[in-house]
Q: What sequence folds into this?
């Protein structure tokens, strides 16, 4: 179901209940943009890649959020699903500009995104720190008002029929006379009725002042007039019956809580997900995590290690279906790991899609696997949940005895927990949120600089006496070159000499130069204040511990290692083409693209030049050698 600002408050309890009873949750985001430019490399370190993506997440916004709550019913061999598609729009004055990328807007529009609904009905939100600041300000105002005399004590025009009112009412202009008369007539009807209060919406400040001044003089029955905030910044003049001072204070306290909840908006959903401690599943979810933390939790910390700590505090258990699909036993059975193609493959032998039914009492149409709503966040979250359910069921069939309806928190799923797909990184198939990162050897990688008119064939010519190579362009005058045969590294260093046309150094030498020439940025005051220690200021996200089965090694011994396909370290875990990176058009690869590696942003002219050379970037063929040491042990998987 679509959730907007009009039905968010009334749907919140249902959303909380769905989160609470779920077996696992799946999430997906759609963004106002995907790339802020800048250079990244297939041979980035995790810290370098995080720094690059952090800039992107700080620039663009999540404008649609999908949440699929799946509950396993073992006895009926099915999952109960409740899926929510949230439209999000920043409405608070402190949130500054709305930044978008034209290609992303065009892409979303082509896929049926409703921008009118986004702007008109998008749910507001504020992260916890700003919510608490707003609460402090409103509570301070409330304490000041409670210390002031009550309307009956001070004899103001705020209360109708108050003795001692001596202020002269504001003269009514001719063009407002009809408005005042109609308002007085409606208030007289309200006095004769039994309603608790009467609201006047969409009044100008001057019209509100006219009623404050003239109602006490025109109506003898004691009444109370006050301006209240309803949704967003809308102000409403409320006419009510007299109440005691204690009742007035209680109403004021409730209004403070109401305004705070309205300001927090969608961020409350993220807090509920975090507090539940349920496994959170995504597909190629690194960029989703960055945006969720930045937009709904706290500013992204400056260091990658602090980012990992914050993510683990907010979401104790994460599972990335793209990591699962790139890992044994699925890697040899799935020809592609884009979300659309994975969904299709998991519906065919040897896999079986789980039986999925909508929850009782669902309002609005729930998603179905036969739908075609790709790139709608709710639908993509639903597909991600369905794929995870199918993969868990397949893992259950490998157990003895087989358990086709396996709990998502089962021990056999544990090795996939808290690893997120490393998009576009040549030899790091995942980032480890809760442990040490992989440290692949890059002794066979060289950094080459050359004239801007060079093409891929020119680079390959330098290395022609040796094994085939993989070329990863950095920009128009530099590239990384990796050898298919690592044992030829010494030969390259001995025989390839720099000339006036090009320079060559090892990856380690290049990295050393980068560290010595770069200047460490000053810590962000905002980030450091929130992250004095990584999770010290995340009290709103105090999550319960994840399931022990997803934290401790299985009792059957240490997990075995499985090897990557022998396509060379730079292609062994190649991502879906452009998935969740680069341009919006590249994001379409979730459902349609093949799993060939992609390069980095460059000019169209340069791209045509390279293509004209007869070689495409990042896809240079490698000779297959089943005994090659290039087989990297990438993933820990259960010992079935």
A:
């Amino acid at each position: 179901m679509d959730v907007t600002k009009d039905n968010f408050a009334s749907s919140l309890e249902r959303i909380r209940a769905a989160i609470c009873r779920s077996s696992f949750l799946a999430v997906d985001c759609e963004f106002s943009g995907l790339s802020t430019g800048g250079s990244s490399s297939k041979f980035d370190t995790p810290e370098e890649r995080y720094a690059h993506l952090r800039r992107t997440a700080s620039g663009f916004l999540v404008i649609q959020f999908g949440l699929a709550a799946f509950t396993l019913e073992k006895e009926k061999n099915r999952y109960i699903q409740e899926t929510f598609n949230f439209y999000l729009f920043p409405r608070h004055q402190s949130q500054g500009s709305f930044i978008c990328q034209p290609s992303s807007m065009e892409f979303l529009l082509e896929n049926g995104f409703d921008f009118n609904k986004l702007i008109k009905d998008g749910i507001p939100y504020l992260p916890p720190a700003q919510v608490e600041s707003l609460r402090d300000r409103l509570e301070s105002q409330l304490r000041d008002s409670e210390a002031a005399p009550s309307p009956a004590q001070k004899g103001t025009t705020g209360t109708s029929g108050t003795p001692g009112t001596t202020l002269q009412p504001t003269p009514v202009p001719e063009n407002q006379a009809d408005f005042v008369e109609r308002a007085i007539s409606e208030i007289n009807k309200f006095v004769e009725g039994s309603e608790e209060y009467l609201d006047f919406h969409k009044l100008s400040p001057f019209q509100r002042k006219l009623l404050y001044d003239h109602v006490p003089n025109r109506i003898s029955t004691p009444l109370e007039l006050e301006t209240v905030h309803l949704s967003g910044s809308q102000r409403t003049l409320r006419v009510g019956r007299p109440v005691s001072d204690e009742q007035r204070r209680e109403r004021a306290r409730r209004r403070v809580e109401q305004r705070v909840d309205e300001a927090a908006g969608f961020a409350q959903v993220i807090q509920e997900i975090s507090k539940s401690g349920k496994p959170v599943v995504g597909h190629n979810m690194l960029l989703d995590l960055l945006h969720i933390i930045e937009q709904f939790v706290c500013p992204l910390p400056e260091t990658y290690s602090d980012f990992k700590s914050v993510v683990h505090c907010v979401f104790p258990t994460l599972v990335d279906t793209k990591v699962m699909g790139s890992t044994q036993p699925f890697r040899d059975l799935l020809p592609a790991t884009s979300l659309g193609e994975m969904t299709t493959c998991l519906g065919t032998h040897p896999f079986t899609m789980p039986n999925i039914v909508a929850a009782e009492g669902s309002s609005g149409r729930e998603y179905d696997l036969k739908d075609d709503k790709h790139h709608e966040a709710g639908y993509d979250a639903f597909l991600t949940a369905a794929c995870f359910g199918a993969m868990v069921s397949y893992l259950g069939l490998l157990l003895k005895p087989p358990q086709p309806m396996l709990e998502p928190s089962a021990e056999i799923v544990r090795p996939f927990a808290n690893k997120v797909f490393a998009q576009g990184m040549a030899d790091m198939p995942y980032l480890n949120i809760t442990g040490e990162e992989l440290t692949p050897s890059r002794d066979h990688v060289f950094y080459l600089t050359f004239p801007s008119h060079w093409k891929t064939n020119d680079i390959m010519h330098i290395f022609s006496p040796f094994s085939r190579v993989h070329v990863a362009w950095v920009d128009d005058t530099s590239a990384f070159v990796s050898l298919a045969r690592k044992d030829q590294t010494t030969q390259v260093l001995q025989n390839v000499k720099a000339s006036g046309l090009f320079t060559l150094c090892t990856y380690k030498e290049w990295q050393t130069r980068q560290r010595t020439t770069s200047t460490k940025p000053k810590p962000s005051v905002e980030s450091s204040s929130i992250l004095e220690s990584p999770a010290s200021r995340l009290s709103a996200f105090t999550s319960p511990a994840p399931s022990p089965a997803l934290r401790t090694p299985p009792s059957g011994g240490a997990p075995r290692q499985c090897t990557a396909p022998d396509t060379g370290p730079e292609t062994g875990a190649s991502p879906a083409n452009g998935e969740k990176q680069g341009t919006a058009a590249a994001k379409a690869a979730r459902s349609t693209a093949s799993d060939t590696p992609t390069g980095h942003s460059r000019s169209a002219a340069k791209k045509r030049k390279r293509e004209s050379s007869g070689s495409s970037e990042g896809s240079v063929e490698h000779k297959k050698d089943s005994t090659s040491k290039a087989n990297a042990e990438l993933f820990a998987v259960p010992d079935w």
Notes: Residues 151-166, 522-532, 551-640 have pLDDT under 50 and may be disordered. The domain at 2-125+266-432 is CATH 3.30.420.10 (Nucleotidyltransferase; domain 5). The chain has 21 helices and 19 strands.
